[in-house]
Design goal:
266 residues; alpha/beta; six-stranded parallel sheet; two-stranded antiparallel sheet; 8 helices; 33% helix; 21% strand; globular
């Protein structure tokens, strides 16, 4: 009986080792690091707020999703109800590109300058959807290879929300910070649209909350080179964000190899 049991156990162990060895070496896992993809939605690319500079970042995003492995991926989306405070159409005699002054949600003693745009990213519209190439990759990853957390922001019609962490008045926070901490994330690699608004806001709040923030310079865009450069200078010089091109970041960040595979080989 003991000999038979030993034979069975030996077979099970051998089978387990075979299975482990059949799994590809995870040579591109960035432990403790989240990939943050900000607002790569159709309206910000070719939709109502179309931006001819935006499509250039898509190959970089595809590479980050295809060639690297992350313990946590964040994809934020503007998710505006009709009549949102940022829509010029919600204010009489106002047009896109103008500004208004609004009260803070929780007190009339504080005021905020609100920029106005065309209607955009209204739920259940094509414009609110994440760009198809990015979304298909996220669908492939989620549930099998990593956790993908979708952050739908700016849902309150009274206040805008650039950052994926909170609205512009810090009246209401998303679940992002708690989710990052739950997954042991200490570093953020930030990408997306647009550099001078939602990317900027997310990167700043990330540093405020104690994360080590890197902005991939060629995986983000603004509506002009000047707007992008102004935002980058502020993020780098004022907030300590590491701003580097994707190729440089890849060269400087050699991911860890799966420890399980190494132990089996040893």
């Amino acid at each position: 009986m003991r000999a038979a049991f030993t034979t069975i156990l030996t077979g099970v162990v051998a089978f387990a080792i075979t299975i482990v060895n059949a799994v590809p070496v995870n040579s591109k896992l960035h432990t403790g690091t989240a990939l943050v993809i900000i607002d790569t939605q159709n309206d910000f690319i070719t939709g109502s707020l179309n931006n001819s500079r935006a499509p250039a970042i898509l190959p970089k995003l595809y590479r980050l999703l295809d060639q690297h492995e992350w313990p946590f991926v964040v994809a934020s989306q503007d998710w505006h109800p009709p009549g949102h405070v940022s829509f010029a159409s919600a204010h009489a005699n106002k047009s896109a590109g103008s500004t208004i002054t609004i009260d803070f949600v929780d007190t009339q003693k504080k005021l905020e300058i609100q920029s106005l745009t065309a209607d955009h990213c209204i739920p259940e519209t094509w414009g609110s959807e994440i760009e198809a190439g990015v979304q298909s990759r996220l669908h492939t990853l989620e549930g099998f290879y990593t956790t993908v957390n979708y952050i739908k922001k700016a849902q309150d019609h009274r206040v805008d929300s650039y950052s994926a962490f909170a609205d512009n008045q810090y009246h209401r926070f998303t679940t992002l910070d708690s989710e990052l901490k739950l997954h042991g994330i200490s570093k953020l690699v930030v990408t997306g649209l647009v550099t001078s608004a939602c990317v900027r806001g997310t990167a700043i709040d990330g540093t405020k909350l104690g994360y080590e923030v890197t902005l991939i310079e060629d995986a983000t865009e603004a509506t002009s080179a000047e707007a992008k450069e102004t935002a980058i200078v502020e993020l780098r010089d004022t907030w300590g964000v590491d701003v580097i091109p994707l190729a440089t970041w890849e060269a400087e960040n050699t991911p860890v190899v799966s420890r399980m595979r190494r132990r089996v080989r040893d």
